From TrEMBL, chain A:
Gene3D superfamilies assigned: 3.10.450.50
Name the UniProt record assigns to this protein: 3-phenylpropionate/cinnamic acid dioxygenase small subunit
Keyword Transmembrane: no
InterPro entries reported for this sequence: NTF2-like_dom_sf, Rng_hydr_dOase-bsu
Keywords from the UniProt entry: Dioxygenase, Oxidoreductase
BP term (GO), one: 3-phenylpropionate catabolic process
Automatic annotation (TrEMBL), chain B:
Domain Rieske, first and last residues per copy: 41-121
Protein name as annotated: Phenylpropionate dioxygenase-like ring-hydroxylating dioxygenase large terminal subunit
CDD domains given in the database record: RHO_alpha_C_AntDO-like
Organism: Sulfitobacter noctilucicola
Keyword annotations of the record: 2Fe-2S, Dioxygenase, Iron, Iron-sulfur, Metal-binding, Oxidoreductase
PROSITE patterns recorded: RIESKE (PS51296)
InterPro entries to which the protein is assigned, alphabetical: Rieske_2Fe-2S (IPR017941), Rieske_2Fe-2S_sf (IPR036922), Ring_hydroxy_dOase_asu_C_dom (IPR015879), Rng_hydr_dOase-A (IPR001663)
Pfam short name (any one): Rieske
GO MF term set: 2 iron, 2 sulfur cluster binding; dioxygenase activity; iron ion binding
SUPFAM superfamilies reported in the protein's UniProt record: Bet v1-like, ISP domain
Family: Belongs to the bacterial ring-hydroxylating dioxygenase alpha subunit family.
Length: 159, 444
């Protein structure tokens, strides 16, 4: 299967909706087993290893994150947080069917709320996508927060 | 709420209990900024953040805007970030190089990097005035005293008071161990700190650093879930670094009891006297060889076998020597604290070592960290719960003994709340500067 540009764009929208509706386990199934979710701390950070990031997680850590959200003693999720992504039409920056390699660049506003608190993050998400068994999968995802160097309270769900 | 003064505020600390106003009262916070944070030695930054002449770094000590700057003679100076003319903050960037002088962006008064006034435009306008005799005419004000200890820069805001050595005493052994872990005997800051805003009193965070009865409860959701998932996978070995970091948080009470807690005078103390949750990390290839070359095998082993958990330097930082980390709990008000969590690179050590520290920092101390979420939830619930009129006092009685003497070093059961009591004892002591001044003179 060779995806069209629209297929790539629809995938990004579908992922955002999955997170907004709280289907986190289903969201995990979108990932390649060696996929990394990276949220840098430093503006234009290039080194994810020797400089701390906000998030640099493999599938084990993402699974832990998702299972924790449903845990009986996850006190910071009593009551649960909710999130909302508003996304601009993604750019398709890399479209290489012969290499099975695709990359999108998406501007988003991410809103998270719990109890009386609500906050807004502006961000750019870069998805590396690939086709496996006829379906698009996330090979890697990088999220650059516009204000990555600001002091935040808890960011509990997934921008 | 009663009106607090320097004389009666210390009544809020009573042995095994402290009054809730200690955490909630804006007036108590105001007295802390006027007295406590001025009388003690506060962390500023690391000298590797300003490696070259003219390099500066802006921060704050509680509500005081501060600049750490490398002067032309190579020394680090710590100045209030305020123009002596009309108050404008001189440096706004978090870091930079100012060259040979600072220049105020408002009226172009300029200052040498030690703060001395260099020039004023149209200086004649001050002829016949008393500007030179005023404090404003002297330049940017420096803090009372500065001490660079093995790269870590501390300041005492008050002009007079306890000396650096007297204040920290033997507690400096934790900083020594952290820096000794670098084959070249020095550290360098590794990137910007994680910044995490907490809507709670700063003392809650500091107390939590030696609270060993919360991890298996509060962190069951994160560390407990990690252990459960790893179990479901059949406990495959070797455990990845992430599991080595997170699983020990679920250690049982007897593990933490056995770790031990040491307290030093003036509010300092540490968990992990006999090993800690950091003791069983895999060795990093090439690291022991580099340490052996620098120190000899016996000394290298002694340095690396010391695995202190959290060392609290009163009033508001925590150091994790085995991981090269420092957390600065910056008070921003009675119910607001900015947490900055730094990683330092031990110079001469393999990259893999600093990579593990950076992983620990983002896994445990980031606003996106699930472990951090567990803790912040508890602090903010406590901050709200303490508003309850039902009970006035907070209990810190665990393993309490009558007539505890905090002027002597002690090692006790690792679940004691003695270190918290030690901090409150120091809090009461330094809210009034009088007792510390004779000590300082005796030490010098």
């Amino acid at each position: 299967m060779t995806p069209s540009r629209d297929d790539l764009i629809d995938f990004i929208y579908a992922e955002a909706r999955m997170l907004d509706e709280g289907h986190f386990s289903q969201w995990l199934d979108l990932w390649q087993p060696d996929g990394i979710y990276w949220m840098p701390l430093d503006y234009k950070q290039t080194d994810p290893d020797c400089i701390t990031s906000l998030l640099y997680e493999d599938q084990f850590m993402l699974r832990l994150r998702v299972e924790r959200l449903e845990g009986a003693r996850t006190f910071s999720q009593k009551p649960k947080s909710r999130c909302h992504h508003v996304i601009q039409r993604p750019f398709v920056d890399v479209f290489e069917p012969e290499e099975n390699r695709y990359q999108t660049n998406t501007s988003m506003h991410y809103v998270e709320t719990r109890l009386d608190e609500q906050f807004l993050l502006a961000l750019t998400a870069v998805h590396d996508l690939t086709v496996v068994d006829g379906a698009l999968r996330i090979a890697n995802k990088r999220v650059d927060l516009l204000n990555s160097d600001a002091a935040f309270g808890n960011i509990q769900l997934l921008p | 709420m009663p009106a607090y003064t320097q004389e009666n505020v210390t009544d809020l600390v009573q042995g095994h209990r402290v009054h809730r106003d200690l955490y909630t009262s804006p007036e108590v916070y105001r007295l802390e900024t006027q007295h406590l944070f001025r009388n003690v030695w506060m962390f500023v930054g690391h000298d590797s953040q300003t490696p070259n002449k003219g390099d500066y770094f802006t921060t704050q000590i509680a509500d005081q805007p501060i600049i750490q700057v490398r002067h032309s003679d190579g020394e680090i100076h710590v100045l209030y970030n305020r123009c002596p003319h009309k108050g404008t903050k001189i440096a706004i960037d978090r870091e930079g190089n100012t060259g040979k002088f600072f220049r105020c962006p408002y009226h172009a008064w300029s200052f040498k990097t030690d703060g001395c006034l260099l020039a004023i435009p149209l200086k004649k306008g001050y002829d016949g005035t008393t500007l030179k005799e005023t404090e404003n005419g002297k330049g940017m004000k420096a803090v009372g005293a500065v001490h660079n200890y093995r790269g870590f820069v501390f300041a005492r805001l008050a002009d007079e008071g306890i000396s650096f050595e007297e204040f920290f005493g033997d507690s400096l052994s934790s900083i020594d161990n952290m820096v000794d872990r670098a084959p070249e005997g020095r550290m360098e800051v590794a990137g910007p700190p994680l910044r995490y805003m907490h809507k709670c009193n700063w003392k809650m965070l500091v107390e939590n650093q030696t609270d060993t009865c919360h991890p298996m409860v509060a962190h069951e959701s994160s560390a407990g879930t990690a252990v459960k998932i790893w179990d479901e996978l059949g406990n495959p070995e070797p455990r990845p670094a992430a599991m080595q970091i997170i699983a020990p948080f679920m250690s049982a009470y007897d593990f933490f009891e056995g770790m031990g807690i040491r307290t030093w005078p003036n509010g300092h103390g540490h968990t992990g006297v006999q090993g800690s949750i950091h003791s069983d990390y895999d060795s990093i290839p090439g690291y022991f060889d580099a340490m052996t070359e620098a120190y000899g095998a016996d000394m290298a082993r002694a340095i690396l076998d010391e695995n202190r958990h959290n060392t609290v330097y009163f009033p508001n930082i925590m150091v994790k020597a085995p991981l090269g980390q420092l957390r600065n709990f910056i008070p921003m008000g009675a119910d607001k604290t900015l947490v900055e969590s730094y990683v330092y690179r031990p110079v001469g050590a393999p990259d893999a070592l600093v990579a593990r520290s950076a992983m620990y920092n983002r896994m445990i101390n980031a606003p996106t960290s699930i472990v951090g979420h567990d803790d912040l939830e508890m602090y903010e619930r406590a901050q709200e719960g303490l508003m309850s009129e039902g009970l006035e006092w907070v209990n810190v009685q665990r393993l309490y003994q009558e007539d505890e003497d905090f002027d002597v070093e002690a090692v006790e059961n690792g679940t004691t709340e003695r270190q918290m009591r030690n901090q409150f004892n120091a809090w009461a002591k330094f809210m009034t500067p009088q007792p510390s001044v004779p000590n300082a003179e005796a030490a010098e």
